Give the backbone structure.
Amino acid sequence: MGNRTITLTDNSTGKSIELPLLEGTAGAPVLDVRSLNKELGCFTFDPGFKATASCESTITYLDGAKGELMYRGYPIEQLAEHCSFLEVCYLLLHGDLPNKDEKDTFVDEIRYHTMINEGLRTFLSGFRYDAHPMAMMTGVIGSLSAFYHDSLNLNDPEQRMTTAHRLIAKIPTIAAATYKHSIGEPVLYPRNDLSYTGNFLYMMWGRPTEPYEPDPVAEQALDVLFLLHADHEQNASTSTVRLAGSSQTNPFGAIAAGTASLWGPAHGGANEAVLRMLDEIGSVDNIDKFVARAKDKNDPFRLMGFGHRVYKNFDPRAKIIKKMAHRVLQDYGDDPRMELALRLEEIALKDDYFVSRKLYPNVDFYSGIIYQALGFPYEMFTVLFAIGRTVGWISHWMEMVSDPKMVIGRPRQLYTGAARRDVPPIESR
Ligand code: CMC
């Protein structure tokens, strides 16, 4: 940490305080305002956290201007090329990539936890057949705390790690079960002879009546997609996990809160919204009309899969996914929506509205095209995001609860409601 400071002066009293600027390993320094209320009797105001660092973290760094993303210091492009999703899970949880033995032990540990309690299957069968899978995911993940009592002690590092393994292992089983429930097919037990992603594909597309082997192209593409979604520092769902977890609630409850946050169309729900938007646009001839709508301030329509709070350049994940979409479509057949997406991107990136606001395609823009080519219904897209992101959520939760200085998250507010007044008797209201 350097020794730069910024001096703040209250013009009405003339009182000044010097606030330290804290330097991280990368990125802009942050102004430490913790003494502000004590010294000057005021708080900071920053709706949407546009200028606020909510915590200190060592897990993920992204440079929005350069379009750079790193997990534990490793660039996302190198991880996507050289590592499996489970290696990246290990990296996020432990801080470094596993060697061969560590990887084998970790993979075994995850395999050991892939089954879910039979009671959870009954719980799941209580949902309506047309429930959105994200609604079922939120409910079932929250209910895990009622089934796995032996790993809920936040102060025990071993129990915390068991919870992390359980969540990473069980999320694909729960995700596939929500799909099977929605189509009325039997929920399949995991097959631990397959890879993490191969087993998920089996639980999605397999049937008890016939043999199933995952397609290597689908397995590889989905594994990379999980890896690209694994973490993204203090995004809305991760911040939700941290805030929920800061009350020392159980980790499953905190992850369920994050899952609910992810579902929103401004966040992980955008991948589903992109495909619905491409369907609505329908043909290249209609693109101009939709671009005009996106620019019209009186129209709530936005180009889904465009723009990002932090990236003011190409989202590096979108670049990798776009390339992969071409590869998957070679095997799975051309999709007119790919052509539409490419044309939309081209037009938007030349349009001054998008250029001046630095609105580029984000991670959700091309991922849906791959998901639907692989056969996933639109409703499952955000569930796939949640499978990848679970390890990020749990890594942030572990980082927070293992910090002896952890405090409950409790933002302040600028109150603009009624001033103090007396309750009138009911006859005069
Ligand atoms: N289409 C049209 N205009 C947009 C879009 C868009 N997709 N995104 C931002 N803008 C405009 C916005 O209207 C505003 O214009 P002005 O300055 O004239 O008022 C300006 O760009 C800045 O937008 P903002 O809403 O202040 O930016 P934000 O950082 O608060 O929001 C965002 C970021 C991702 C919520 C937003 O870009 C958006 O709604 N995008 C579409 C939904 C989407 O793709 N979400 C996925 C995000 S990435 C993955 C994830 O987080 O899960």
